[in-house]
Design goal:
Blueprint: E1 11-13, E2 19-21, H1 32-35, H2 42-56, H3 72-81, H4 85-88, H5 99-112
Antiparallel strand pairs: 1-2
C-alpha cells in the first residue's frame, strides 16, 4: 500500500532537487520528526487534530495560550485524562442533547493523535 500523504503535510521536491517537507506545525505527524517519512497513519493524526480543533474551537498551535496549552493535542489529551473534557469543548457545539456524541468524538480524536502511529486507528476505521 502506498504511503498516505496528508493534505496538511505534503512533501515536495524543491527547485534545487532537495527534498523537504512542507506542512503546518501542529498537524504534522510527530513520527515524521523522528523518521523523516510520512506513514500510512500520518493522515489519521492530521484528521485527529482537525477533529479536536472543531470540538474545542481552538487552533492546533498557539503561542498566545499559556505554555501548557500551546499544543492543542497535548492539552486536549491531558484534559481528557483529568476527566475535564467538558471544560475544553467549545460552547458552540456543547449542549445537553449531544454530550455522549461529543464524548465519542473526543475519544476518537484522542486515539487519532496518539504519538505512535501503530496505536492510531486506520483511516478506514475512522
Amino acid at each position: 500500500m502506498a504511503e498516505a500523504i496528508s493534505y496538511f503535510a505534503r512533501c515536495c521536491i524543491s527547485s534545487d532537487h532537495s527534498s523537504g517537507c512542507q506542512g503546518t506545525l501542529g498537524y504534522l505527524d510527530p513520527e515524521y520528526f523522528h523518521t523523516s517519512q510520512l506513514m500510512e497513519k500520518s493522515d489519521v493524526y492530521s484528521f485527529g487534530v482537525v477533529l479536536i480543533e472543531l470540538l474545542t474551537g481552538l487552533k492546533a498551535l498557539s503561542f498566545e495560550r499559556p505554555e501548557h496549552q500551546r499544543n492543542l493535542c497535548v492539552y486536549f489529551v491531558s484534559m481528557m485524562e483529568e476527566d475535564r473534557l467538558l471544560e475544553i469543548l467549545d460552547g458552540r457545539v456543547l449542549n445537553e442533547k449531544n454530550i455522549e456524541t461529543l464524548k465519542e468524538m473526543a475519544a476518537l480524536g484522542r486515539r487519532c493523535v496518539r504519538l505512535k502511529g501503530e496505536e492510531r486507528p486506520t483511516m478506514k476505521e475512522v
